[in-house]
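TEACHING EXERCISE
Course module: macromolecular assemblies
Task: Read the component lines below, then compare them to the predicted structure of the full complex.
Student: A.B.
Group: 4
Components provided:
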Amino acid sequence: MATYTPPIRDMQFVMHELLGVTDALKAMPPHAEIDADTLNAVLEEGGKFAAEVTFPLNASGDEQGCTLDKTTHEVTAPKGFKAAYAQYVEGGWPALSCDPAYGGQGLPIVLNQCLYEMLNSANQAWTMYPGLTHGAYEALHTHGTDEQKRTYLPKLTSGHWTGTMCLTEPHCGTDLGLLRSKAEPQADGSYRITGSKIFISSGEHDLAENIVHLVLARLPDAPQGSKGISLFVVPKFLVQPDGSLGARNPIWCTGLEHKMGIHGNATAQISLDGAVGTLVGEPHKGLAAMFVMMNAARLGVGMQSLGLTEVAYQNAVAYAKDRIQMRSLSGPKAPDKPADPIIVHPDVRKMLLTARAYAEGGRALSLYCALLIDRELSHPDEAVRRDAADQVALLTPIVKAFLTDNAWLATSHCLQVYGGHGYIREWGMEQYVRDARINMIYEGTNTIQSLDLLGRKVLADNGAKLKKFGQLIVDFVEEEGVVEAMQEFVNPLADLGDKVTKLTSELGMKAFGNADEVGGAAVDYLRVVGHLVFAYFFARSAKVALEKQGTGDPFYTAKLATARFYFAKLLPETASLIRTARSGVQPLLAMDEALF
Amino acid sequence: MATYTPPIRDMQFVMHELLGVTDALKAMPPHAEIDADTLNAVLEEGGKFAAEVTFPLNASGDEQGCTLDKTTHEVTAPKGFKAAYAQYVEGGWPALSCDPAYGGQGLPIVLNQCLYEMLNSANQAWTMYPGLTHGAYEALHTHGTDEQKRTYLPKLTSGHWTGTMCLTEPHCGTDLGLLRSKAEPQADGSYRITGSKIFISSGEHDLAENIVHLVLARLPDAPQGSKGISLFVVPKFLVQPDGSLGARNPIWCTGLEHKMGIHGNATAQISLDGAVGTLVGEPHKGLAAMFVMMNAARLGVGMQSLGLTEVAYQNAVAYAKDRIQMRSLSGPKAPDKPADPIIVHPDVRKMLLTARAYAEGGRALSLYCALLIDRELSHPDEAVRRDAADQVALLTPIVKAFLTDNAWLATSHCLQVYGGHGYIREWGMEQYVRDARINMIYEGTNTIQSLDLLGRKVLADNGAKLKKFGQLIVDFVEEEGVVEAMQEFVNPLADLGDKVTKLTSELGMKAFGNADEVGGAAVDYLRVVGHLVFAYFFARSAKVALEKQGTGDPFYTAKLATARFYFAKLLPETASLIRTARSGVQPLLAMDEALF
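Instructor-supplied answer key:
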């Protein structure tokens, strides 16, 4: 019953009108020749794939889930997933932003990010199969040996093989320093790995010929804790020197989790019984190597939630226009009907606009961030690359945590728009809520993201990275502050910027006295900074919309209305967050553990 | 894997130390003799029933759901539900607060409310079978004819028969004025009712001998809209003059909804094919009669969410004490272990304390409200009864909407405490989240509750009811404002009270100019008033706790810590809510419907 229309127009707005992507790409040699038409054509085709191929499998995939044959340890994905994946591979989509040296198309990350938003709107569970693959590709591309690259990258690029990240064990998720899986060196330079992993997304399935597991384990001489973890690549089927598949490696799916959502993705318990692997990167430095994959994955999780926010919004709007119930408090708006469509009711609009603003703000931020990654990877000037990397480091936890928390709010609001029907499976809304819930947890819980932001990204360098981003805001405020029509946007932005500066130094001082103060304020702090970033992009969007309003294109009218809504109804959350962030950790620590 | 311990101590605190229930009951003739021991004994026994009989069926009931035999139209509840219900009936629990004239035990509502919190913690889906029954009992007790009372009340009181509310139709939920079911008068004074109902909780099942449906339908001469709706009682099996069951009435379950949660309760599609019913109350005044049931049901929904908040809290605490992961930022707290229990981390505590404070605040408010209902029903002084009724009218939408929104936040936080394990079914947390989601929707969506509060309960009488409650706060502030130890609680309470007064008159003025302003501000307004009410009860609780701290009972230390947490970390939400409430409806109405 659900519908999905790829938001091509808003993606084009962000890419071409807000970020000037093609100009930015001109400075990056590998992308210098890309024009807007190419980008737009890929958007159209990608949107078509998402809407026509994977979206129709979303509800049925949720209903069926994955099945494990306990004898063969083989997993069957929901009906249609395999064929859709074959079509995805056939269309060359896995290769979109991969290295041409391994068969990739070498298109920019910012475009791939658009594709992933659409794929996640269409079907988050399905999209996790290629999504994890791309993560494995990046880890091997950065840290693999030449032989590993030759062996795995072409197949991961084409999508004929998929990838996983095997980190979590039953007793450790956040705290990987506790992990116990062991790797025994073999005479031939390979390793035999033994251990139990859980929560392995796309861990086993029937979509691809081979599955390339990236596994964290300890070498025999490993130091304790997180500094004694190494990364290994462990294929499901061993790869022969000629590239063909050899023996089945003893890495088995021993169970599938029964989850709240993302039923279409196989969340596997994995047992390694002396599975053969090779070392990726340096011994004992696996966590750092894995973090290449993890950082990409964190942005990917943000895209999952952006996708869910958008599709939930679209469906709730359609329902709110169609469903008639009660009269507007200010008098009938559809006097020819027995009641008004519920979109006339202010609170219904508030719920819809919340989802809309979170989608538009999230899209601007995440594409901005993706373009920074392109710059980090492909700009010839090292200072520019470093600057981009700093901004990516700062923004990654915000994309992950702010967008996923927002999607939880937004999808829940969109469900509420449907009234009782929102609670019924056939309407599809409750699946979006269930699917959205995992995004706040995996790839580092949102608490971990907030500690990463405040502790590692902000306080550890005395706010240097934050100041870099803040300078963009200061410049914008200075430039636009004199434009009367912009004041409604610039003034609250400038005000919030000042408050963030003040709050940051206050928290820095407090943390100096008591490290727990970071943990007490971090979650509130991340949301405040998230709003600052959103306010900046909404103000910039409003500037573009004001300039182009004369074109008569209602797109700009809507963009302005959404920006105004954002400043009036969502940004004020910061008033409370700043208060609670400032009220310190003491109210959290006062109660003795035994009294809980 | 989940556990549940009835929170008897906190219930006793609220009843005996905060509200002085037995003293209050002394003024009500039917309850004048009840002592604390009786109340405590019932609490103990009720808690035992919940924890031992229905709690073990919660996860399995969710897993199995209900099944409909499409040939016989009979529904089978999950395994164990029927036996548990038989034990519930056997124990006399349905009769607890029912009228002794019909076999009830005549105990106060405030006690029944405690029972319902515990039953809902244990198993919300199961509890809806007796819960709806109690609603049907109340509607018939208030509006039924003598014959209807004689026929139905003894069996509803004993629990041998259960009840339902048949309101919603596919095209109308909130807007019952649109409903189409028809009632044709018969020569014998009965009616033949025809129509389709959906979302009928406990609508068909195998727990009871008979099901007493209360059905809204239109008489042939009915005026259009909500003033043309009548209420009928339509039993599944017709009742013979001797009280025995006769023919099967043609009221059939034609389908069961597939829902996000509360799988153990049968949410039935009901078809009435000329089913025989009798009129309850006056013709065309069915909605008013149904509202007796509805108001009780709204408080009942608040208790469902209170129950879920409590049980989610308890489990998350157990997990947070047991699960070790990472070191405290301020240094190891469990140096003998490889990592600290996660309860040392400030944000984990924040999530736990949020759930705890919402449970404690919700318990104080809902038991206060229940005691008011006892007063409304049983106090000899009409002025006292009216005053109690006014307060109940004001507080009902707050109990319904504030407690259910809080439970959504709280259960989601508690899930998050578990990390990835929270997303896995076997741990039980994700079921609490799924079950909690419906409570924000049924018995009037939370938007409807907020419109009821701001439009009907506050602005319609120029704030008279609100002032009544406000006077309690003013008196308390005046009395306690001089006590130094109380100032940390009294000052923010007084401050918020002033702000609510100001906000209320501001919204009243605005609404005078544009009725849509009510719809634009109502949801924010309800949460602000909800916090005011919670702040009042936390301040009163703190007063008791401060007085009794000398006893050395750690219960009071914990109560104080929770109150302080509430004032530091939850109440500040009002800063944002007041801003957004004041920013008006214009940002919500500005965008043209076509641009969404």
